[in-house]
Design a protein that fits this description.
With 424 residues, this protein is α/β, with parallel strands linked by helices. 27% of the residues lie in helices and 21% in strands. It has twelve helices and 20 strands. β7 (139-147), α6 (153-166) and β8 (172-176) form a beta-alpha-beta unit. α8 packs parallel to α9. The chain is globular, with a radius of gyration of 21 Å. This is DUF4038 domain-containing protein.
């Protein structure tokens, strides 16, 4: 597989001379919690659904952190074993054969918070990883791991610079804490090739839950993950993407079992909203799959509803490919968010009509299925379709005129009111 690089316009990723639309799945604990046979089944499932990146962490927990990182991790007693790292390499090779890049976190952020990784030893670990894994072309390095970098900026800079020096052909980014973005700390750092943000798992009305992850968040956009994309392009001339939106079948807000779950319709909304704002791709996640949950495992599971092998087939994971195929059907690298096409101005919250347009195409995502109008005077005469983000089906409308008026979407299925207008 070819190494990836950033496009000339600094907004997207490239694989050789071809544009690369990042479509990742969150498989954080693949190395510690499942066997290689199970790993193949997982990777094959995701590759067949159009995913091309797997986000995974090499060291999530250790014996010292089992009481802190309570999500079950079966490899906590193996990280110093040669057997474990051979296991890691076999899974990386497996992914490569299936056409998947591995976006690897050297560790979860808690290892820095608890002084297991420090300024004094971070390059010892970095050198070990570089010497062991630099030979694999399907690796992307992801520093961080659900952490605010405030107190650890220089440690991450030290590791990032080292990785870029030793592996200049590998992309490097940073996975931040919920409702934060890597651009908050590393917007101008040359070792960071593209930004990630974590829009998180909360509703509009869950701004302050009083839980452990409420302290000192400088920005809160609720469910408006597209705002992180917009802000990143104001402060950093680098591609960006939502590396952790709300997972399918995870509790809204994470901590309260009385709350409802995020489901496929919301998962789709996060994907279309951020990508149509100009993100270079999107990361999907499922609660059970990201931790490879098995019944009887101890630890926090955020209200998991089934084991991971059943969750592999949740509908949202199969619907992400329709967005990827749609973007790949046009010259998306030269497209941009185009709110100005919404007649009467852009709408708030769930009523938002997310519009992404280029010289020869327009995509408009409507979550609620309400009436709206677009100024399509620059696209007169082009073909139009409704695309279902649930099935990917394209339904021809006709030729485009100066203004397109979408009638209210009368559907019986309340979960499937979203739709995509396609003009090209």
């Amino acid at each position: 597989m070819e190494n990836l690089h950033v496009s000339d316009n600094k907004r997207y990723l490239m694989k050789g001379s071809e544009t690369f639309f990042w479509l990742a799945d969150t498989g954080w604990l693949i190395f510690g919690n499942i066997s290689e046979e199970e790993a193949y089944n997982y990777l094959k499932n995701r590759a067949d659904k159009g995913f091309n990146v797997i986000q995974a962490v090499l060291v999530y927990s250790t014996k010292e952190l089992e009481s802190v990182n309570k999500m079950y991790w079966g490899g906590a007693d193996r990280i110093n074993d040669e057997e474990y790292w051979q296991h890691v390499e076999r899974i990386i090779k497996m992914a490569d054969k299936l056409g998947l890049y591995m976006a690897l976190l050297p560790s979860w952020g808690s290892l820095l918070k608890n002084n297991l990784i420090t300024s004094e030893n971070v390059l010892v670990y970095g050198r070990f990883l570089a010497e062991r894994l630099e030979k694999y072309s399907n690796i992307i390095w992801v520093l961080g791991g659900d952490i605010k970098a405030d107190n650890y900026v220089e440690i991450y800079r030290k590791l990032g610079r080292y990785f870029k020096e030793k592996m200049p052909d590998k992309l490097i980014t940073f996975h931040p804490f919920g409702r934060c973005a890597s651009s908050m700390w590393f917007a101008d750092d040359s070792w960071l090739d593209f930004n990630m943000f974590q829009s998180g798992h909360r509703r509009y009305d869950q701004c302050n839950l009083g839980a452990w992850d409420d302290t000192d968040n400088p920005s809160y956009y609720g469910e408006d993950n597209w705002k992180y994309v917009k802000n990143d392009y104001l402060v950093s001339n680098k591609p960006t993407l939502d590396a952790e939106p709300s997972y399918e079948w995870i509790l809204q807000g994470l901590h309260d079992n009385t709350q409802p779950y995020w489901k496929a319709k919301q998962v789709r909304r996060y994907a279309y909203w951020s990508v149509f704002q100009g993100a270079c791709g999107h990361t999907y996640g499922d609660n059970a799959v990201m931790q490879f949950y098995k019944e009887g495992c101890n630890g926090v599971n955020y209200g998991v509803v089934c084991e991971w092998e059943e969750a592999l087939h949740h509908e949202g994971s199969g619907q992400m490919q329709y967005l990827k195929k749609l973007m790949e059907s046009v010259d998306f690298i030269n497209g941009k968010a185009s709110d100005s096409l919404v007649v009467g101005g852009q709408r708030e919250k769930h009523a938002r009509i997310a519009v992404f347009a280029g010289q020869n195409f327009v995509f408009a995502y409507d979550y609620l299925g309400e009436e709206f109008e677009l100024d399509t005077s620059d696209y007169e005469g082009r073909d139009m379709w409704w695309m279902s983000p649930v099935t990917g089906a394209m339904s021809y409308i006709g030729r485009c005129k100066n203004v397109f008026t979408a009638e209210k979407f009368k559907r019986i299925e309340e979960d499937n009111t979203d739709r995509v207008l396609v003009i090209k």
